[in-house]
Amino acid sequence: MKKNYETVFIMTPVLSEAQMKDTVGRFKKVLTSNGAEIINEENWGLKKLAYPIQHKTTGFYQLFEFLATPDTIIKLETEFRREEAVMRFLTTALDKHAVVYNERRKKGEFNKKKEEKKEVAS
């Protein structure tokens, strides 16, 4: 049975834009070729890390939200471990509340700038 999952992974900052997109594409292909249905994909770009990983202080963050079976997760995480460009990854199973939260977040309901503008207008 398919469940909702979310995975975030951090790629090394020494990658070029093309190499980063290629790496993301490979993981997307691992998901889709194993029957996963990608719901959302976000590239958060180059971010500062809270602590150095492999002597690096920044990394490219990528998020996938998808429907998949547990077997697909095993295959995906095996590929993460094989890929030298990936410094860290975390996959979590989403409960119904997290799915609703993600839907609201994608619609921009938690965007503080919009809320501030509404307060000024009233």
Features of this protein?
122 residues, alpha+beta, Alpha-Beta Plaits, 4 helices, globular
Task: Note the main sheet.
Answer: 4 strands, antiparallel
The rough form would be described as globular
First and last CA, distance? 48 Å
- Give the tally of structural domains: 1
Q: Quick one: how many beta strands? A: 4
Question: How do the helices and strands line up, and which of them pair or pack?
Answer:
Blueprint: E1 3-11, H1 17-33, E2 37-53, E3 56-68, H2 70-82, E4 86-93, H3 96-106, H4 112-121
Question: Would you give an account of this structure?
Answer:
The protein contains four helices and four strands; from the N terminus they run βαββαβαα. The protein has 122 residues and is an alpha+beta fold. It has a single domain (3-121), classed as Alpha-Beta Plaits. The chain is globular. The model has no long low-confidence stretch (mean pLDDT 89).
